Amino acid sequence: MRLDVVTIFPEYLEPLNVSLVGRARSRGSLDVRVHDLRDWTHDRHRTVDDTPFGGGPGMVMKPEPWGEALDEVLASGEGEPVLVVPTPSGRPFTQELAVELAGKPWLVFTPARYEGIDRRVVEEYRQRCEVHEVSIGDYVLAGGEAAVLVITEAVARLLPGVLGNAESHRDDSFAPGAMANLLEGPVYTKPPQWRGREVPEVLLSGHHGRIARWRRDEALRRTAANRPDLIGRCAPAGWDKHDRALLRELGFDEGPDGRFGRPPQTVEE
């Protein structure tokens, strides 16, 4: 996979040289190219922003340097590039989207600063390539570079050969499959006792069926506690008899369609 990032802070992307992403780069699984947007400015101050039309606070990133930068980057490779625009107003970034992006051969990121990029840039390149406007959460950052790091890490670990164990991501929280929409349960390693705290006995039993059931139950308990909204998204066909009993114990009601949800809260007068 090729990955290009156009930014006014190339140094912010230094973490792409370490850990899994750095190893993927050194092995050739990931070709990362970071570009300084100011290289496509033509004034002595290397200006990339200006005041917004219509008034209002903050500054807006100018379309001219972005247009020149993206034209050159997109012309430098072969195949179909996918433009990824980190923005709080974008589509939520999910594991499903990470899997989708991991199947693309070439991603180009446009992390913005200030109040964002002139809208005409997105409109221009939407006519020329696939564009994803993506939000990593319901909050606002000083710039999109942190979002690029998040998205890259989530995508890169799904590429063949990046993880040491190809099975590692199959039971991740939100991973497609039987555990879809459930958070991953707690994990343990050696030693079996630490500061008076013991590893759950079932994990030491060697009984694979009991271990699988325990992990499923713990995933249900954690999801119910931290993300109860996810329970309602799970397909009814995915629940077995034990799941249903545990969900009722955890305070969920089963609806006519087989989906589970928390009963509505009543307000005392």
Automatic annotation (TrEMBL):
Pfam families xref list? tRNA_m1G_MT (PF01746)
Instruction: List residues of the tRNA methyltransferase TRMD/TRM10-type domain.
Output: 1-232
Q: Which SUPFAM superfamilies match?
A: alpha/beta knot
Main EC class the enzyme belongs to: transferase
InterPro entries from the UniProt entry: Alpha/beta_knot_MTases (IPR029028), tRNA_m1G_MeTrfase_C_sf (IPR023148), tRNA_m1G_MeTrfase_TrmD (IPR002649), tRNA_m1G_MTases_N (IPR029026), tRNA_MeTrfase_TRMD/TRM10 (IPR016009)
Per the UniProt entry, the signal peptide is none
Which residues of this UniProt protein bind S-adenosyl-L-methionine? Answer: 136-141
Catalytic reaction list: guanosine(37) in tRNA + S-adenosyl-L-methionine = N(1)-methylguanosine(37) in tRNA + S-adenosyl-L-homocysteine + H(+)
State its Enzyme Commission number(s): 2.1.1.228
Print the keywords alphabetically. Cytoplasm, Methyltransferase, S-adenosyl-L-methionine, Transferase, tRNA processing
Q: Which Gene3D superfamilies match?
A: 3.40.1280.10, tRNA(m1g37)methyltransferase, domain 2
| Tree of life domain | Bacteria
Subunit text:
Homodimer.
PANTHER family on file: TRNA (GUANINE-N(1)-)-METHYLTRANSFERASE
**UniProt function note:** Specifically methylates guanosine-37 in various tRNAs.
Similarity section: Belongs to the RNA methyltransferase TrmD family.
Extract the NCBIfam families matched here. Answer: PRK00026.1, trmD
Protein name per its UniProtKB record: tRNA (guanine-N(1)-)-methyltransferase
Q: Say which species the protein is native to.
A: Streptomyces thermolineatus
